[in-house]
């Protein structure tokens, strides 16, 4: 939150001044402090107001995480899982096998470095999200809807938890659409269930969740646009899903 607010303020004050990010949570290290996006929530929707502006320098040191509570550590780790899914099998395997509940911070530093490299490689090719950068939205179309719904019903959830649940949903859609490998899906689903629990979902919530997805800033004209995968690293952006497909996805999540 601090890097988003500070970056947004620095980007608009006097039409932009230089700023440095020194993130002290895992989510900030992996996500908010790198990539140049700054944003604040507006009218109950995520990151509706913001600009693209990179920090002059970003310092990353996992030793700050000695005092980070477990939920916020897991919240950041969900974004790392996303980076593993959009990069390669080897990195994803390391992430799924890492003991996040008793983390070796020196090893985590290496994993963070790799994750940031994945994100930076994408951002350099598409700094303002016209194409490839949409890969970073994996898990977020559903995740943002979960997050906004939870906030509106006065049961807020951490961003990374919503993203983790969103990854399960969107990988299920990837299986249906592109035959994403089921063994990887079940391993990821098991990891999320064991570490993040589940989003309390009722079929009466479906219409509201679908509405939130259509209002996500990535979508226009009432169309729900997903980033899906054919395999680990096989990114399929701009995948439109029907309301029936979205409800089927939510059915799977609720029942499993």
How far from one another are the termini?
32 Å
Q: Any low-confidence stretches, pLDDT <50, length ≥5?
A: none
Number of domains: 1
> CATH H level: which superfamily?
Dehydroquinate synthase-like - alpha domain
SSE pattern, N- to C-terminal: HEHEEEHHHHHHHEEH
The CATH architecture can be given as Up-down Bundle
Helix amount: 40-55%
The spatial strand order of the largest sheet comes to 1-4
Number of helices: 10
Q: How would the global form be characterised?
A: globular
What is the rounded Rg?
Answer: 17 Å
> Which class in CATH terms?
Mainly Alpha
Secondary structure blueprint with pairings:
Elements: H1 2-12, E1 20-21, H2 26-32, E2 37-42, E3 45-52, E4 57-58, H3 70-85, H4 89-97, H5 105-125, H6 140-152, H7 159-178, H8 182-196, H9 206-214, E5 224-231, E6 234-241, H10 243-255
Parallel strand pairs: 1-4
Antiparallel strand pairs: 2-3, 5-6
Helix pairs in contact: 2-3, 2-5, 3-4, 3-7, 6-7, 6-9, 7-8, 7-10
Describe this structure in words.
This protein has a two-stranded parallel sheet. Helix 7 crosses helix 10 (243-255). It has a single domain (69-256), classed as Dehydroquinate synthase-like - alpha domain (Dehydroquinate synthase-like, alpha domain), CATH 1.20.1090. The radius of gyration is 17 Å and the shape is globular. The longest helix has 21 residues, at 105-125. Helices cover 52% and strands 13% of the residues. It has helices at 2-12, 26-32, 70-85, 89-97, 105-125, 140-152, 159-178, 182-196, 206-214, 243-255; strands at 20-21, 37-42, 45-52, 57-58, 224-231, 234-241. The chain is α+β, with helices and mostly antiparallel strands.
